[in-house]
């Protein structure tokens, strides 16, 4: 490498260390491996097409929440609502999800976005989808243990493969281990119900989804996007476990006006945090907690569901009805019906659409 190029790189590093963006009371500084001069978006798209994701209504949610001092998302999933939060803002953010592979993805993106981008940069290939899916399911328990045992550990390859596969997957069941196809010595064959992975065609309709969409289809664009994600998530506190652990007093209203976005597995659904599966009564537990805390004037809560939360009307909650996106998950009669049944219930102290702009900042 020539002397002039070395000088240029040194100058770039010095210049880049000064690149920052104000975010409320904090300063966002780009990750050390982030490209020089990266433009920072006010909001970001979710990196993968999450079943039941709320990207379509994120703007409405923040219109009702306003500029709160604490934000908590116990069922994080694709993070569409957090990523759709307008910036700059003040305060802290806490998220949680039960799925360890999802948590590994977010941890890896925060720590080494370039490595995640490298492993996620791959064309849609059905054989690779099955091979990587099987590898992830077989290593999921070990990844879970290592994430818990070491707060700095992450697997960038697993994170890249996971988000790539999620973007190529159709419907639910990604990395749940509930399929019937698996490894039998050197053969890929049926091994029994809920003992392997589901064998199906990858998503090949349209221009692609998630990180496989056309505008981020090369490693350079993925690097750019994952660096933006890393910068956005730098101060987000990420937990992996039961939802109730992140909604205590100290996490919520202990720091001022707090917003909590609750998107639990529906009573009649196929989600279980990020993992797939039925709700198992979680929605009712979440609703009971929300009713108690929703009466506080320093709490703004949004609870998602179908019609299982209609009793909230008696508590002064306001329903917002919307239609979910279509796609492979909704290409049957039941799917279309459910897409039209979506409701977000806002607690009494959320901002009403007709309220003044001053209420957006918790000033009544």
The span between the termini is 62 Å
CATH superfamily label of the largest domain: Vaccinia Virus protein VP39
- Helical content band: 25-40%
The number of helical runs is 10
- The total beta strand count reads 11
What attributes characterize this protein structure?
364 residues; Rossmann fold; 2 domains; seven-stranded mixed β-sheet; two-stranded antiparallel sheet; 10 helices; 11 strands; disordered N terminus
In brief:
This protein is α/β, with parallel strands linked by helices and 364 residues long. It is 33% helix and 13% strand. The protein has 2 domains: 28-98 and 241-364, 3-Layer(aba) Sandwich (Rossmann fold), CATH 3.40.50; 100-211, no CATH class.
Molecular structure report:
By secondary structure, the chain is α/β, with parallel strands linked by helices. It has two domains: 28-98 and 241-364, Rossmann fold (3-Layer(aba) Sandwich), CATH 3.40.50.150; 100-211, no CATH class. The chain contains ten helices and eleven strands. It has helices spanning 3-17, 58-65, 80-83, 100-111, 113-120, 126-149, 156-168, 219-233, 282-294, 333-339; strands at 20-23, 26-29, 70-73, 92-96, 181-184, 187-190, 237-239, 258-262, 299-305, 318-321, 343-346. The strands form three sheets. The protein has a seven-stranded mixed beta sheet, sandwiched between helices. The longest helix has 24 residues, at 126-149. The protein starts with a helix and ends in an 18-residue tail after the last strand.
């Amino acid at each position: 490498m020539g002397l002039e190029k070395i000088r240029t790189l040194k100058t770039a590093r010095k210049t880049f260390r000064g690149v920052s963006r104000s975010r409320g009371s904090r300063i966002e500084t780009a990750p050390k491996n982030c490209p020089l001069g990266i433009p920072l978006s006010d909001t970001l798209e979710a990196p993968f097409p999450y079943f039941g994701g709320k990207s379509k209504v994120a703007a409405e949610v923040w219109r009702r929440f306003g500029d709160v001092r604490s934000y908590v998302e116990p069922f994080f999933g694709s993070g569409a609502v957090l990523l759709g939060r307008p910036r700059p803002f003040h305060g802290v953010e806490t998220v949680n999800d039960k799925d360890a592979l999802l948590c590994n993805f977010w941890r890896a993106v925060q720590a080494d976005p370039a490595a995640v981008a490298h492993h996620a940069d791959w064309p849609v290939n059905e054989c690779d989808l099955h091979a990587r899916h099987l590898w992830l399911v077989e290593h999921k328990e070990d990844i879970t243990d290592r994430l818990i045992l070491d707060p700095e550990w992450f697997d960038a390859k697993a994170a890249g493969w996971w988000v790539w596969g999620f973007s190529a997957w159709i419907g639910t069941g990604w990395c749940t281990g509930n399929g019937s196809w698996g490894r039998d010595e050197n053969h890929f064959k049926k091994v029994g119900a809920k003992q392997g992975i589901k064998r199906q065609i990858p998503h090949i309709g349209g221009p692609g989804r998630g990180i496989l969409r056309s505008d981020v289809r090369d490693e350079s664009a993925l690097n750019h996007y994952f660096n933006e994600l890393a910068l956005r998530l730098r101060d987000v506190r990420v937990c992996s476990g039961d939802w109730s652990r992140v909604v205590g007093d100290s996490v919520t209203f202990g720091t001022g006006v707090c917003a909590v976005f609750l998107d639990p597995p529906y009573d009649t659904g196929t989600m279980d945090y990020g993992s797939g599966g039925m709700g198992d009564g979680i929605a009712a537990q979440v609703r009971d907690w929300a009713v108690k805390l929703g009466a506080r004037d320093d709490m703004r809560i949004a609870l998602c569901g179908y019609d299982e939360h209609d009793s909230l009307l008696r508590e002064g909650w306001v329903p917002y009805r919307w239609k979910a996106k279509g796609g492979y998950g909704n290409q049957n009669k039941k799917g279309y019906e459910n897409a039209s049944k979506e409701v977000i219930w806002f607690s009494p102290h959320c901002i009403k659409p007709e309220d003044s702009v001053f209420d957006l900042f918790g000033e009544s």
